[in-house]
Specification:
alpha/beta, Enolase-like, domain 1, 7-stranded mixed beta sheet, 10 strands, 30% helix, globular, disordered N terminus
């Protein structure tokens, strides 16, 4: 099946479009074999609050690429439309999440995180959803290089991650487009610029690539010379291409994510550039 999509309107200098452009002249002749949408609601036992995630995933070759979306943002028709489509066409798809998931799968198929020479793989051991969330959070928090008492803007609130930063004596400013409060009744900012003001580093969810806020966050970090570390289930292989450019560290967690299985899963940690 071949579907033709118009070129999406993008801001100049978009990091995502830069990475897509880097694929020009390289083999993107593959087709997608599987596409699926996962809707997940979670409330860890022992926690008072929960959350809902939706993730679009696309398989290319041996890899599954993913991008988080808002619940209801992607319908079944889009999922059916992209199955069997040419990868080159999907990299021009008007829906950002489709481009991210397709590119993520393409890059992950070319070089899996587990085989990348700069990645350090960390096992998230089998356990309850809270045990696995806590173990993953501690691995991610290792990438944040600020002294005790330093302040980190956390864009994309994950309560286990906030707890892991607190264990290290690191202050944080939680920020999320959904607002609200953390598990500990701390107010959550909705404006990432306010959250980044006064921060010593930024730790951001891969979801910001799909919701269109990544470029602004990266520009703020660059202008203020702040480390920008990503924890990414969305576009984990895409962010790998940004190391040393837009970002300084990455926790890459390709499909299957820790919350999909009670068994062992892995995250892959990168520091600095890949040059």
């Amino acid at each position: 099946m071949s579907v033709s999509f118009p070129f999406p309107r993008q801001r100049a200098h978009s990091a995502l479009e830069r990475v897509i452009g880097d694929r020009d002249g390289k083999s993107v002749e593959a087709k997608t074999s599987v596409a699926f949408l996962t809707v997940q609601a979670a409330q860890h036992v022992g926690r008072r609050s929960g959350y809902v995630n939706a993730v679009l995933s696309v398989r290319v070759g041996s890899a599954v690429g993913s991008c988080a979306v808002e619940p209801g943002e992607i319908d079944d028709e889009v999922v059916r439309e992209i199955v069997g489509a040419d990868l080159a066409e999907l990299l021009r798809h008007p829906v950002t999440a489709v481009r991210v998931a397709a590119l993520d799968a393409c890059l992950g198929d070319a070089v899996p995180h587990a085989r990348h020479p700069r990645a350090r793989s960390v096992r998230v051991p089998a356990g309850t959803s809270l045990e696995k969330s806590t173990a993953r959070a501690r691995a991610v928090a290792e990438l944040v290089e600020v002294p005790a008492g330093g302040r980190v803007a956390v864009v994309g609130v994950v309560n286990s991650l906030l707890a892991a930063l607190r264990e290290r004596g690191i202050d944080y400013v939680p920020c999320d487009l959904k607002g609200g409060v953390t598990e500990w009744e701390e107010p959550v900012l909705t404006d990432h610029q306010r959250a980044i003001d006064g921060a010593d580093a930024v730790l951001a969810s891969g979801m910001v690539l799909g919701n269109g806020t990544f470029d602004s966050i990266a520009a703020l970090c660059r202008s203020r010379e702040l480390p920008l570390v990503m924890f990414a289930q969305s576009g984990s292989a895409v962010f790998r291409e940004m190391l040393g450019e837009e970002i300084t560290g990455l926790s890459a967690e390709p499909y299957p994510f820790f919350w999909l299985s009670g068994g062992d899963t892995d995250v892959h940690l990168y520091r600095g550039g890949l040059g």
